[in-house]
Amino acid sequence: MRYIKEYEELTSEILQNKYFLELQNDSHHGTNRYDHCKRVSYLSYLIVRLFKGNRQNAAIGGLLHDFFHGETGTSAEINYLTHPKTSAKNAKKYFNINDEEAKIIETHMYHHALAKKVLPFISKEKGVNLKECRPTSKEGFIVCLSDLLVSIFEVGRYKVRYDTCLYFLFLINIIRY
Ligand SMILES: [Fe+2]
Ligand SMILES: [Fe+2]
Hints:
The chain has a single domain (2-176), classed as Orthogonal Bundle (Hypothetical protein af1432), CATH 1.10.3210. The chain is globular, with a radius of gyration of 15 Å. The N and C termini lie far apart (38 Å). The protein has 10 helices and 2 strands, in the order H-H-E-E-H-H-H-H-H-H-H-H. The chain is an all-alpha fold. Residues 36, 40, 65-66, 147 line the site of one fe (ii) ion.
């Protein structure tokens, strides 16, 4: 199909890059980070097509949104405030991304920051600046939403930690009401 071909053209260089391929070695939500990034990227691309946004920015921003190395839970890079910055730095280092794509990567944890602000009892961390975490484009919000939806799918499918599932349950309730 035409859109699959377009998606492959936009992302093939990154998907074959040896530093990006190393994400296959990092576990993430019970799967590996390479597959997680691919899912988020493809879903973002499909949603952006519906809303007539910038398809390249969504596909690239989605693909590189978690471009950091290290096992989940063992590194400070996993922190929800720092890993978007690390991912954007890596993306700039290895690929020729534009400013919009970099911004999408840097703000992809907005949903998480929002949940922590609304539900402070799930975290003792302070100093979350929601304004800084907020996406600045339609594509940025779409990558954020795709990351959340893909994460829920992965958590449900691969059965990760109980408290992580609980967090998602809270989040779904916020969205519903
Ligand atoms: Fe992330
Ligand atoms: Fe992610």
